[in-house]
Design a protein that fits this description.
By secondary structure, the chain is mainly alpha-helical.
Length: 419
């Protein structure tokens, strides 16, 4: 059974209050970001220790995690809809901790990559469950506000994560970067076990039936709004992963300023965090579409300016920092809103829809980001050109979702959420 849930009111679920709930969702997302960005300063040390001679090959430490993270999201949704959110979450956390420990003790690069895939498989549950749990309790603009506030903390992690990785390297060898992930995952597992209730009501649980799951996936993938914004998130995510894959080499090999890497990377991530905070304050007043569509046009514009600067040979560390910060500032207004709009029509199959969307956006986004990273040729030009191309692809996807109309929602029937 379902009943209308207003934008402002959560579903009838006991548990933590709004601030603690937002912090829990944010930390679920942050564990994913930490597993990506804290690695960046350690890539040269990992490559040297494990005999990786090609600098571009070191990007597999990032991409292997993202592929494990993306591919298995499609599994967690149906499991969460059948067994509930909390049991699946705890399994994911256990895998996250176990494979982080394995990565720390890996004697070969191949085993490290396998462990990174396993860590990503565990983290996939966190992504699917974060979105599903929020959708269980909220809808509409309030859901967008929760996602934006959570995204703020999630994106605060990249500001500190590279510095954390660098700090660890000053006092301990590179395996301890993975050890910190294991400790963080274990700490959150204890918090969630104590404070997070089951948000999926028993009457809304669905059996694992191939026909039903196929029908739910088909609905998620055939809904114009859901699919259009999922493709847009995929393109924007590809740009983000391209930046992550390329950034360490750009600072070390192009600008020869490794000491500024964590500072500038943090400043760029800080732009995303500031935008997410502003979005949380503005989204209920202005609406998700006006904000995110405007930001997407800004993303494309700043990316094009940056590409022109890089191609013409005028790139410096300061032009890179400013233009990349402006571009990613726009990203901060896009990601949370696109995610909320993709999930908006999917409340009755939130777990399955979240896993389908996560599978597409992360798997293909990681592949696009890896493709951008592999084009690194000693300059920032390949990355900036990739940003322009993927920004335009995201715009085309949004136009598809909205039938050619930007900034305002089309008239739609009310969205129902689980009671």
């Amino acid at each position: 059974m379902t009943s209308p849930t207003t934008d402002a009111a959560p579903a009838r679920t006991k548990g933590p209050g709004f601030p603690e709930f937002v912090c829990m969702i944010a930390l679920m997302m942050a564990l994913n970001a930490l597993a990506i960005d804290s690695m960046l300063p350690a890539l040269p040390a990992i490559g040297d220790a494990l005999g990786v001679t090609s600098e571009n090959s070191r990007q597999w430490v990032i991409t292997a995690y993202l592929l494990g993270f993306g591919v298995t999201q499609i599994i967690y949704g149906p499991l969460a809809d059948r067994f509930g959110r909390k049991p699946v979450l705890m399994v994911g956390l256990a895998l996250y901790v176990l494979f982080s420990v394995l990565a720390a003790f890996s004697p070969t690069f191949e085993l490290l990559i396998a462990a990174r895939v396993g860590t990503g498989i565990g983290a996939a549950a966190l992504r699917v469950l974060a979105v599903s749990i929020v959708r269980d309790r909220y809808s509409g603009r309030t859901m967008a506000r929760v996602m934006s506030l959570s995204f703020l903390v999630f994106l605060g992690v990249p500001i500190l994560a590279p510095a954390l990785g660098q700090l660890i390297l000053t006092v301990a060898p590179w395996p301890w970067v993975f050890g910190v992930l294991a400790v963080g995952g274990a700490a959150f597992a204890i918090w969630a076990a104590i404070r997070l209730p089951e948000t999926l009501h028993p009457e809304n649980r669905m059996p694992i039936q191939v026909g039903r799951i196929a029908s739910a996936f088909r609905e998620a993938l055939s809904n114009r709004q859901s699919m259009g914004y999922t493709l847009a998130i995929t393109a924007i995510s590809g740009a983000l992963f391209g930046f992550i894959n390329s950034s360490q080499q750009i600072f070390f090999d192009v600008f020869h300023e490794p000491q500024l890497f964590t500072v500038v990377f943090g400043a760029v991530a800080g732009g995303i965090a500031v935008a997410s905070l502003l979005n949380a304050r503005l989204v209920e007043k202005l609406g998700s579409r006006l904000i995110s569509h405007t930001a997407l046009l800004g993303f494309i514009t700043f990316s094009a300016i940056h590409a022109a600067v890089a191609i013409t040979g005028h790139e410096t560390i300061w032009t890179f920092a400013v233009l990349q910060a402006l571009t990613m500032f726009c990203f901060g207004f896009i990601a949370g809103n696109f995610g909320a709009m993709a999930m908006e029509p999917m409340g009755h199959i939130a777990g399955t829809a979240s896993s389908a969307q996560g599978f597409i956006s992360t798997t293909f986004g990681a592949s696009l980001g890896f493709l951008i990273g592999q084009q690194f040729n000693g300059s920032a030009a390949p990355m900036t050109i990739g940003f322009v191309a993927l920004g335009l692809a995201a715009l085309a996807s949004v136009l598809f979702a909205e039938r050619g109309r930007l900034f305002k929602a089309r008239n739609r029937p009310p969205v129902l959420a689980p009671s």
